[in-house]
Amino acid sequence: MDQYGYVFVDLMGTFAFGISGALAGRERRLDPFGVLVVTYATACGGGIVRDLCLGSLPPVGMGDWRYLACVVLAAAVTLWMYPTLDRIRNPVVWFDSLGLGLFAVVGAQKSMQLTNNIEVALVLGVIAAVGGGVLRDVLLNRVPVILEKEIYALAALAGAAIQVFGQWAGWSAVLTPWIAVLTCFVIRSLALRYSWSLPRTW
Amino acid sequence: MDQYGYVFVDLMGTFAFGISGALAGRERRLDPFGVLVVTYATACGGGIVRDLCLGSLPPVGMGDWRYLACVVLAAAVTLWMYPTLDRIRNPVVWFDSLGLGLFAVVGAQKSMQLTNNIEVALVLGVIAAVGGGVLRDVLLNRVPVILEKEIYALAALAGAAIQVFGQWAGWSAVLTPWIAVLTCFVIRSLALRYSWSLPRTW
Amino acid sequence: MDQYGYVFVDLMGTFAFGISGALAGRERRLDPFGVLVVTYATACGGGIVRDLCLGSLPPVGMGDWRYLACVVLAAAVTLWMYPTLDRIRNPVVWFDSLGLGLFAVVGAQKSMQLTNNIEVALVLGVIAAVGGGVLRDVLLNRVPVILEKEIYALAALAGAAIQVFGQWAGWSAVLTPWIAVLTCFVIRSLALRYSWSLPRTW
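Output (structure tokens, whole complex):
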């Protein structure tokens, strides 16, 4: 997968997180522009922090019109299809899980490309993945999803780790990102479905 | 308006947001230094995020003594005149609205100057304008003002858009920023006064 | 104290703040990886903001394995020794106070070294010192410790100021940082012990 492929994955993540942000804003009955602001923060927050830490300025969520278009589209689709989406149980959470995987992979890939440092790639993969959701929840004054019992940041780390390992081991550049995204999404979804948590003694 | 003019507008915004931050801290009965911290976060938070995204380091809110002087002055004036200010209805909100317009305009102008990218200028204009208030409300564990019903971020976008359009269309460099500031302030103030909200079906 | 000495102080601060973050996460009964995330945010959050503002990329909390090792160690030690630590009254607060002093000093020193600007050094010393704790409390949806009555950010400012003044006045490079750390820690601890607050008329 070349440069354009990762931009496509990044845009998909932006759209998926955008839907989750727009739904969360709509559920709080914000006005349309308020919904757009929360959509933008959720969709672009993680990528902005990632780009700031990589010194890749201005952050893509600001200077690239395609990201802004994804944000506007996600907000518009959500507001238009809200009655349908509302019937799905916990739709915010499903789109959030998808965005988690997509952003973990792009965050890890972009960090590897710019710093060639495995630690930076793992940490920034997780931060890019969880950043937008944390910002959404902080803006909406909710308990951040990252604190939920069900495996969350660990799923993002799994996705980032597979991407980094695949690049290092020379796996197929076309398949690796999708395996990584799928792994993250499946872990998070199963954790939600069966209320998985890490073992603990407390 | 030359470079110095925008610095002056930026300092005015710092002072106005500083007053709003100091009032919010005082209302929560923080001690004097706690008030100063919230004043600084409110007054310089948006500008620091703006400068980080533009790669203009160190952020002006840190390296330029005039910004720190504005912060100290705003905190001192607020604590000294608190009995008077407290009699005004919702003084936090009025100074917040003024800061909103001033920062939207300076954020848009500085972003245009450094990146010559209209999207960056619009997005960073809004972020610079709303950032300090969000930080203030997050620190004080309040519901962020950006979630309020009355038009908020949209007013900032209007101010940023007028500034960007005016620069592009070659309007008077002296008048444009003030028209933009005034537009933002008037929109936000009218929205507050008459409880305007965007139309919505929910 | 040479470059390596300050890295050592920075790692100590990372460990101390890490313990405070891990304890806070454990008290909230997060799962082990959730505890690790809060530990990382608390231990590295302030340093990441500091490095972003200094343009020192990637931030040390991401690219340097020793910081990540400190974070993992702090989380592991905390979870393992929790029954013991829990018997100490307010252990989060004690480790938080120690981290406050260590980070104020390193933040001030690194800022002076990279910008040679006293204002930047004072502001970034305080931000580096309080940033991790604020991030911890925002993530855990608690009232930020910076808002507590007992002198907090002012203690960090005292530590940063002693370090900056000592560097300017040519004090011993070995002793100055420890005097600064100790001053900050003692001020904060006494303030906690005797419920000191700044004088105020409200």
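DSSP finds nine helices and no strands in chain B.
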